[in-house]
Every structure is written in C-alpha cells, then in structure tokens.
Design goal:
Strand order of the largest sheet: 1-2
Helix content: over 70%
Number of strands: 2
Number of helices: 9
Oligomer: single chain
Radius of gyration: 23 Å
Structural class: mainly alpha
Length: about 210
C-alpha cells in the first residue's frame, strides 16, 4: 500500500519530467502499480521499489530535445507521442491543401472563397482564444515559430531555389499551378491545427 507521502515522492519526480497532464496521470498510474507489485512480490521497501521503477523507466523518461527546430527538452516518451501527432497534422494539412488547390483549377473564385473561410476560421479561433484567455500572446508567438511552421518555410525556400535550376517552360508551368498558394494554405492549416490543439490543452509543443 502506497502512502500519501510516498505518492507525493512519485508525483514530485514525474513533475520534474515536465510531462503533459494526460501523460503524467497515465505514467503515474503505471509507476504506482509497478512499485506496489515490486513491494508485494519482491518483499522490498518503497525506496528500493521506487528506484527500481525509475531505472526501468529511465530511457522513456530521459529528457531529450523536443525537435531539431526547438530548444525545449521533454521526456523521450512524450517526444514519441508528439512525433505521431505532428505527422497527423502534416498529412491532414497537406491533404486539405491539395483539395483547396484542386478547387483553384475548377474555379479561381471558389478557391478565393475557401481561402477567406480558412483565414476567417484562423482569425476567429485566435480571437476566441484571446478573449477566453485560453492562450497568451507568447503562445501566439510560439505558434508562429513552431517547428512545423519553420519546416514549411525552409521547404518553400528550397523549392524556390530548386526552381531556379529548372527549364523556363517548366517554371512557367509551376507558376501557373500557383505553388506558392499551396504553401500558404498548407501553413495556415498547420497553424490552425496547432492553435486548436493548444486551446484543447493537448500538447503540441506550445
């Protein structure tokens, strides 16, 4: 049976790993269960069982750099969760952006309307977030320099650089396809999703 003081020791340790709330609670349950099992099955005291459990979780709870374009350090297990979440954001943003571009070829007017709706959604959610104090201005700045946004900027620059080495006719075709529009829509979708997750208090490194 784990006492309140012992639970507080577990809580203090896990807080030092800076885990997001949901993951913190989940791992805390695992810690308490594993420590209780060690104490019951191995006949050892709390401190010994606690040290063994910390050792078993050492790799998962090791503090590592969150992303190549971020200086934040988070637990390795949380980094794995974030990588999956970021992958979903990228894929869904790319899919929606391609759909928007498809509308551009069908109707430039329809594409413009969709762009206005998208920007309106972003501005509306941002305004709601500020009014309800769900995010601070510092969070907005962090979103603007989010690793996913930075990657998009670098990819855009790399594409422009690459186009400079392509034949003129091909450059004209790419210009007609409005590649820049795609990246603008894609970046907006990425930021919209990051903001949404932040408002929902889901960790997206903001």
């Amino acid at each position: 049976m784990i006492t309140q003081d012992q639970e507080l020791q577990i809580e203090t340790y896990l807080r030092s790993r800076k885990l997001y709330h949901e993951l913190h609670l989940e791992i805390k349950d695992h810690f308490m269960s594993q420590i209780s099992d060690e104490m019951a099955n191995q006949g050892i005291g709390f401190q010994e069982a606690f040290l063994k459990t910390k050792s078993d979780w050492g790799k998962e709870l090791e503090m590592v750099r969150a992303d190549l374009f971020s200086f934040k350090k988070i637990a390795r297990i949380e980094k794995q969760v974030l990588k999956k979440r970021f992958r979903k954001i990228v894929f869904s943003s790319a899919a929606w952006s391609l759909l928007f571009i498809a509308f551009f070829f069908i109707s430039a007017e329809a594409f413009t309307v969709l762009q206005v709706v998208l920007m309106g959604s972003w501005i509306g959610l941002l305004g709601y977030s500020f009014l309800t104090k769900k995010i601070a201005f510092s969070h907005y700045v962090a979103i603007s320099f989010h690793p996913l946004v930075i990657r998009n900027m670098l990819l855009s620059v790399a594409l422009v650089f690459l186009i400079g080495f392509l034949p003129v006719d091909f450059i004209t075709t790419l210009t007609d396809m409005e590649i820049n529009r795609f990246f603008l829509v894609y970046a907006t979708f990425v930021q919209l999703q990051i903001l949404y997750f932040k408002v929902k208090r889901i960790n997206v490194l903001v």
